[in-house]
Structure formats: structure tokens, C-alpha cells
Amino acid sequence: MAAYRQQRRCDEEAVFVVEGPKMAAEALASGFVIRTVCATTEWLAANGAGVAAECHEVSLAELERLSNQKAPNQVWMLVERKDLNDLKDPDDLILALDRIQDPGNLGTMMRTADWYGIRHIVCSTDTVSCYNPKVVQASMGAVFRTRVEYVDLPQWLATCGMPVFGASLQGEPLPTIHHPLPALKILLIGNESRGISPVAMAHVTHPVLIPNIGGTAESLNASVAAAILIDRLIG
Amino acid sequence: MAAYRQQRRCDEEAVFVVEGPKMAAEALASGFVIRTVCATTEWLAANGAGVAAECHEVSLAELERLSNQKAPNQVWMLVERKDLNDLKDPDDLILALDRIQDPGNLGTMMRTADWYGIRHIVCSTDTVSCYNPKVVQASMGAVFRTRVEYVDLPQWLATCGMPVFGASLQGEPLPTIHHPLPALKILLIGNESRGISPVAMAHVTHPVLIPNIGGTAESLNASVAAAILIDRLIG
Prior knowledge:
By secondary structure, chain A is an alpha/beta fold. Helix content of chain A is 31%, strand content 23%. Chain A contains 9 helices and 10 strands. Chain A binds chain B through residues 104, 108, 111-118, 138, 140-142, 145, 174-175, 210-221, 223-224, 227-228, 231-232, 234-235, and chain B through 104, 108, 111-119, 138, 140-142, 145, 174-175, 210-221, 223-224, 227-228, 231-232, 234-235.
């Protein structure tokens, strides 16, 4: 099982790793197919030893060898990936991500999207995989409820026919933004250090600005900026 | 120098570790005293070999032994802690943190506070240290511009004489919150998994709610919730 610490192996078999009792409970409730479970005696006793086709009772030391976590916790699972194309398309906001690199940021943005009812995230092909174990854990279950698509982003933006909001230094300050906003819109978030790429920025129809009130910080964390914009655009 | 990987050693000598050229530039510009620099030939050539009382030229392998980072980057510094009591107290919002455990969350909240001009953060004594290396790095320089105080939080809240905003399931929904808001206020943020403790919650005068529009996510990331609330309360 330790081979699944390699992302390539997970990609080849179209599975992803889920760890810990909280995320495991989300997986069991999700309707996703659980292929393999490696868990402690206690977890198996509490959850039934038949939750997956393949269930292994393992020691904590074995769990540690499998785990990507600092503190492995009771249960490790391999879950089969599933296309969530059947999810109803959002009627308010689609999140578009341009070259997000940090797994924690993508997972946190998926979690925030989940909170605000955003079910569709469109990513540039060079955005980190939503099945990266750190993304899965940071998403806090949103990976089971969000359709994450990887596309040629500038081309997709060019042909989607929707207003595109994106943060820009030349944008309209968020507190004075015009209401009512378009019903269905795209919110475009850029790379952690380089922002939105020029080819994607060309498709932003509604540039907006989160005012730098302090005047000392260089930038906001990408998942924080995404949350503030989502909240202002649909909250 | 590797002894400074231990937080206790840093606490005893009232210093903290700063890494990488971006944060090192912030440190040099901050007016804080740099006690020690360990850096590559290139970094020292570009920044001057006299930037600290003690400057060592080190190899990448030596830098790796010192570093807390996954990818150590050119320069490692020991910076002397400094009381920022002389900072003008904010006239709009003081951030109060109840038992924040995750260093990334505290650092990100400091960075968001910096963006919004919040210069004073008051933490419960069991909140993670603002000098934890992961906090310092995630703060993106805010550690040099923010007064972070550790206090008996419930007692401080009881005697501060200011309105206290805090997230609560029984709170007023954020989008319909009454304006104008009190000029000077406290925003209280609770622990990542347990929220605001009951003893601190007793002092919340303005409970607010970030509506769970999706209805599926259990919670928001603490630093994301803090950012949304800060933006709504002072943005």
C-alpha cells in the first residue's frame, strides 16, 4: 500500500487517499466507492470490517508508513475517483483557478466553496491536483461534493459567455462594488506569487480590488483573498 | 546554530528565526536587530556581509541542517524580539484569538490583519507563539508590524470596555448586519475545532453568523473565517 504515497500511482489507478476518522466518515457517507481500508482494530470494530472490498487491520506503526500526515490517525483509505458531472451547475458563481500551486490553498478554497454552495471549480491544467493528499485533507470533505475540472483556462474563459470577476490593482474597490451583481458569474483567482496570468486577465470583465487599508502588506494569502471575494460576491 | 531549531532555545534568548530572501529583506527593512545571519555567498554578496553582528557564509547543505523549511533558500537569520508597545493602538478593530493552534492559521491571520491595518492582536496564553517559525513565515512580514500580546483572554475581554464581535450559530447573519458599526471593536476568533470557549463567549456582545449557504460543509478554516469577518467589519 505504501506505493500509493506516490501521486503517480494514484493517478494511474484513478484513486485518492483519505486519512483520519473525520474524513473517513465523510468518505463513507459520500457514495464514493472505497477500494481499500487500512485501519486500527478500534476503528474497524466501530465502523464494521466490511466497509470496503479490501479491509486490513494494521498497527499504528504500519499506519505511519502509509501516511502522508504528521500524526496518522486510526484509518487510511483508498477511494475511487468519481466524475461529479451530474452535480447541478451553480446558478450564482463558478470559481476559476489560474495556476494555484499550494495544496493547502486549493483544499481551503474547496472548503470555502463548499460552505458557500459553489459546486463547480474550473482550474488551469497547471493547478495542483485536487486529489493531492494535502488538498483532500484541507478540503475537509469538499472533495466529495465539488466538481473540479482541469481545462485550458484562457480558452475556457474566452468561450464561457459569462461575466468574469478577478482581483486587479486597477479594479473597483470591493466595498463600493455595484449591486445587483450579475446572477451567474465567474470568480477568477490567480497564482500565489504571480497573480492572474496576462492571458487569463484578458478575459476579466469585472476587475475588483480588495483595498490595502494597512498599506504595509504586500499581498493576501490566495485562499483568504478567494474567501473575501466569494463572500462579497454571493454572501 | 542548529540548536535554534528548538523553540525553547529561541524563547530563552528572545530571538526568532527568519528564512528566505523575501522575509530576510523584510527583516532588514524592519528596524529589528538581526543577531546572526547564515547565508550563501551569493546572498551575502548582494546584501553586504555586514548586515548583522555575526555573519556566516554557509553551504546549501549547512542551510538545510538549520532550516525548518522544505526548501531552504539562501538565507537564515536570528532576529531579536521587540516589544511593539509603541505602535499606535488601532482605532477600528483589535483582533482577539482564543486558543488558535495551527501556526499557518496564526501567521495567515497576522498577514490579513496587516493588510487591513490592524496593528494589535490579543491572544489567549494557549494560542501558538507568534515566534514559531511557521507563524513567522506565513505572516509574510506582518510579525515586524503587529503587536501580538498573550493574556488571560476572558479577563481581558471582561475589562476592556469595548464591544466584542464573535462568530456564533445564534448570531446575526453577516450580510444583514446593522450599520454603522461601533468605531472601535474587538473581533474574537475561536479554536480551529472547538470554536470560541464558553468563558470567552460570555463576553461576546455582538454575535455574528457567516451563513452556511451550501449547507454541506461543517465549518470554515479559522483564518478564512477571520478574513471574511475582518473584511465585513472594517472593509
